[in-house]
UniProtKB/TrEMBL annotation:
One of its GO terms (molecular function) is DNA binding. This is HTH tetR-type domain-containing protein. PANTHER family: ACREF/ENVCD OPERON REPRESSOR-RELATED, TETR-FAMILY TRANSCRIPTIONAL REGULATOR. It comes from Paenibacillus kribbensis. The keyword DNA-binding applies.
Length: 192
């Protein structure tokens, strides 16, 4: 029988994670110490070390979970019906992904903008590429590698831009704009 994770463990990890994200936003990763994380979470260092090896382990686990939260929602294969893109389904999927980002905006903003997080960004993009790779027909009109790089870069850039604008537009609006950019293309979008 599989045992559920103890609620106390879940709560402790959550307060540590929340304190860590707050410190990441205020101080940057390199400036943070385990003691500062423990103090902000109102736990002692030994409690921190029961859950994480060090701050790098905490960062990795936090980033991996943030990545998993988005990747599990990316489902391009569900938007292609009889070889055609189902726009409303795709737009709704983008909106749901943006809602996940919005719910943890400080974390995603740090992960996608902090120059020290380049490896995390690369991992995010490579995971997106693997997820999307099998979803498109084999006979696309440009290099498959180039297409996947462009598509995943667009996903990440739109999310990054939205976060940097302090999410002043709704997730629905951004999803609609994203779809327009994809369907119409950048050249026609600017009127050429």
């Amino acid at each position: 029988m599989i045992r559920k994770k103890d609620l106390r463990i879940i709560k402790t990890q959550k307060v540590i994670r929340d304190a860590f994200i707050d410190l990441l936003d205020k101080s940057g990763f390199e400036a943070i110490t385990v003691q500062e994380i423990a103090n902000a979470a109102m736990v002692n260092r030994s409690t921190f070390y029961l859950h994480y090896v060090d701050k790098y382990d905490l960062l990795q686990k936090t980033a991996d979970q943030a990545l998993a939260n988005i990747i599990e929602l990316v489902a391009p294969e569900t938007h292609i019906v009889d070889g055609k893109l189902e726009y409303n389904s795709f737009k709704e999927n983008i909106r749901v992904i943006l809602k996940v980002v919005e719910d943890d905006a400080v974390l995603y903003k740090v992960l996608l903008n902090d120059p020290q997080m380049i490896e995390i960004n690369q991992k995010f993009q490579q995971t997106l590429i693997r997820k999307m790779d099998g979803s498109f027909p084999g006979n696309i009109l440009i290099s498959r590698d180039l297409f996947l790089e462009w598509m995943t870069s667009l996903y990440m850039s739109v999310i990054r831009w939205w976060l940097n604008q302090n999410m002043k537009y709704s997730s629905n609006f951004i999803a609609e704009e994203f779809i327009k950019l994809l369907v119409i293309g950048p050249v026609k979008t600017v009127g050429f």
